[in-house]
Backbone:
């Protein structure tokens, strides 16, 4: 099922409320081996310098880094800290099998569209949000069609699936490689880092949804 809702997850909300004309689109999230919770997002703003200053003042993020710049939008990376990290539900969502199809942040909050495998997963996610003190306003809920390609994406988001298919079609996995990540990133109009992260996450998810159930438990000394 697909669920669309608005909730007040605090990450970047202070900055967005300082700059109400700014709109951000979540791209990727991951946790580094050092335990940092990093988030990539595109921003559209009429004053990027003011928005960057607002990010430096926002207590939910730190170390904002500009990765890619176009005339009308910029790709940033931030580390979630404070309440931004404490109230993050991303790991709980992905562990439960939810897939973020779209996540847009404005001064009104985060509007999120998520695919859940079943109603039990949705109820679990709602409980996690309540535990974090995050109420959400439901906008739309509908069943995904069995005839759409969403019924066979092995847990991949649309963006991850698109990037992985493009990489395969262009020979990225051939030996020798038929293309590189810079070329794939340019064709998809994203940064090298975003392309790399999508491919890495997509491969991890594919393994988890296909090979992982048959794997033996790893040796205890490996991490």
Residues:
């Amino acid at each position: 099922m697909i669920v669309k809702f608005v909730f007040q997850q605090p990450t970047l909300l202070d900055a967005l409320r300082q700059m109400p004309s700014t709109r951000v689109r979540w791209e990727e999230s991951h946790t580094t081996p050092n335990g940092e919770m990093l988030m990539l997002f595109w921003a559209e703003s009429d004053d990027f310098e003011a928005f960057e200053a607002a990010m430096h003042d926002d207590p939910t993020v730190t170390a904002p880094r500009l990765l890619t710049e176009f005339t009308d939008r910029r790709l940033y990376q931030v580390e979630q800290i404070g309440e931004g990290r404490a109230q993050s539900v991303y790991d709980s969502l992905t562990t439960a099998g939810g897939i973020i199809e779209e996540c847009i942040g404005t001064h009104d909050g985060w509007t999120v569209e998520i695919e859940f495998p079943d109603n039990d997963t949705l109820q679990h996610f709602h409980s996690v949000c309540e535990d974090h003190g995050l109420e959400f306003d439901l906008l739309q809920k509908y069943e995904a069609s069995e005839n759409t390609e969403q019924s066979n994406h092995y847990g991949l988001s649309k963006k991850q699936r698109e990037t992985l298919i493009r990489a395969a079609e262009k020979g990225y996995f051939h030996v020798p490689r038929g293309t590189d990540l810079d070329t794939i990133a340019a064709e998809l109009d994203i940064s090298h880092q975003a392309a790399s992260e999508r491919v890495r996450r997509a491969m991890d998810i594919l393994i988890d949804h296909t090979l992982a159930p048959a794997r033996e438990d790893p040796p205890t000394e490996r991490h």
In short: Strands lie at 2-7, 23-31, 37-44, 61-69, 74-80, 99-106, 109-115, 136-142.
